[in-house]
Structure formats: C-alpha cells, structure tokens
From TrEMBL:
Keywords: Membrane, Transmembrane, Transmembrane helix
Chain ranges passing through the membrane: 20-41, 62-81, 87-107
Domain of life: Archaea
PANTHER family: SMALL-CONDUCTANCE MECHANOSENSITIVE CHANNEL (PTHR30221)
GO MF term set: mechanosensitive monoatomic ion channel activity
Keyword Coiled coil part of the UniProt annotation: no
InterPro entries named among the record's database cross-references: MscS_archaea/bacteria_type
The keyword Cytoplasm is annotated on this UniProt entry: no
Protein name, UniProt field: Small-conductance mechanosensitive channel
Length: 283
C-alpha cells in the first residue's frame, strides 16, 4: 500500500477534524458557561451575606449544593456533546430524578428557609403560636428548621411546616438588659439567688398564663470565690420599654436581692441609651 493511502486511512479526514473541533469547541463553551454559573452563585451568596439578608452559615449549604449540581450537569453535557451518546442524556435524567427524590425534603426546607428570611414571616426572639399547638419563643432560624423554645422544651420545627401551617399569632416583646454584680457569699449561691430573684420578679409582674412567654437569660461574665458578675436579658411580652417600667422591674429585683441578704449593684441599659443604677451593700 502506498504511504499516502496508508496515512489517509490512518488519519481522520479533514471533515472529521472539523466536526471534532466543533464538538470540542461546543463542549468548551458549555464548561465556560458552567464556570460562569458557579461564579454567579458565589457572587450572589456573597451579596446576600454582605446585605445581611443571610448569614454565612446559611449561605454555605446553598452555595455548595448549587455548585455541585452545576458542575455535575456541565460535565455530563460536555461529555454528551463530544461523544454524541444518548446514554448520557438518559443518565443525566436519572441522576437528576434520583437527586430530586433523595433531597426533596432538604430542598423544600432550604427553599422555605430563604422564604422565611426574606419575607420575615417569623424572626428571632419573637413569640409565636402555631395551629399545631406549638407556642414559644423563636430562638434561631436554621437552613432546615426553626428552633422554638417552649415551656415543655425545645422544638425543631421544619421550615416547610412553618410555611405550610403558618403562624397563628405573633407577639413582639421588649428587652430588659441588666448587669448585676453580687458579692459576699459563695459564687454559686450568689448566682442561684440572682436566678431565684429574677423568677420571683417575673412571677409578680405577669399573670400565670403570660409567664411562659418570658425569655430569661443569665450569662456569667466574671466569677470568683465570693463574687460574680452576670448579664441578664429578659424579654417581656406586650410591654413597651418605657423608663418607668424598666425602673420598676429593676427596683423589684433589687428589693428581692436585699431580702436574700445579697450585696449587689445593678446597671440597667436599655436599647435607646436609657441607663440607671441600683444597688445595696448590706452588713
């Protein structure tokens, strides 16, 4: 066989080279489009975080899931363009259906999460009552569920259920923020007395059916053998943070600590900058 005929049989024809080049070019364009889509999702995630619409922990799952799906689909489409195999199309459809079925609840809850955040159906530190009987304070809103603290314990309500059932009642609350320094007794006894005094004040200020709606947090800032400094955050339903109401709350707390024989100083700082101090040194 002449060398020219041998090379012609061995090498692809000019038309074949053009077709292969076009397919490779189309596959490259698909890969570039996939990369652009990933970069767009990444940019969108950063903008949502910068605008404080979503936090970093919420954006991260959305970005990773979107990126992985885009990469998978882009690679398979590129492979189909190069090979021309219809099996790839069937495989893509089967994989997408399997992913959709396996992650349906996950996707629904994530979609509901962004709907809750953007529309502000519920927000952190709000008291809610749902038609299914769950009532309490919204502690946090996660990508998959809403954490609701009730008098019976903490419930993790799926985001999709929150949207489907809706919020029957939503009540705002005002915050009392206090810094309490106590001394003169063992530190654990001091902290227990602060908690007891706080419970007593709340019980005297509110009727029984409203007490479960109060948010109470006692955060230990400093502690030593015979002294402690704690921050108290109290969320009171159906109240306005007026100075006289705040003063009454702290005066009651101060009197209760005096009844326990506790040396104390209390600083109340309200969001609008209202500040006043109470205290008593006994013995």
């Amino acid at each position: 066989m002449p060398l020219a005929d041998y090379l012609e049989a061995l090498l692809p024809s000019y038309e074949s080279l053009i077709e292969i080049s076009m397919r490779l070019g189309e596959a490259l364009l698909v890969l570039i489009a996939g990369l652009a889509a990933v970069l767009f999702v990444r940019s969108l995630s950063r903008r949502l975080t910068a605008a404080r619409i979503l936090d970093e922990t919420s954006v991260s799952p959305f970005y990773r899931l979107s990126r992985d799906l885009i990469v998978l689909i882009t690679v398979m489409i590129s492979f189909y363009i190069v090979t021309g195999s219809r099996f790839i199309i069937i495989l893509i459809a089967v994989l997408l259906a399997a992913i959709l079925l396996a992650t349906w609840d996950l996707l629904m809850n994530m979609a509901a999460y962004y709907a809750i955040i953007i529309t502000r159906i519920v927000s952190r530190d709000e008291y809610i009552i749902m038609p299914n009987g769950v009532r309490g304070w919204v502690r946090d809103i996660r990508p998959l569920f809403v954490i609701v603290e009730t008098k019976y314990g903490v419930y993790h309500v799926p985001n999709s259920m929150m949207l489907r059932l809706g919020v029957l009642t939503k009540r705002e609350r005002s915050y009392y923020r206090l810094t309490v320094r106590v001394w003169g007794l063992p530190s654990q006894q001091l902290i227990d007395n602060v908690r007891d005094a706080l419970d007593n004040v709340v019980n005297t200020l509110l009727p029984e059916d409203e007490r479960s709606a109060v948010m109470k947090r006692v955060i230990i800032d400093e502690i030593s053998e015979d002294s402690a400094t704690v921050r108290i955050i109290v969320g009171m339903p159906h109240t306005e943070p007026k100075p006289e109401r705040l003063a009454d709350f702290v005066e009651r707390l101060s009197r209760r600590l005096q009844e326990h024989g506790i040396n104390h100083s209390i600083t109340l700082e309200e969001q609008e900058g209202y500040e006043q101090r109470w205290g008593a040194t006994l013995g």
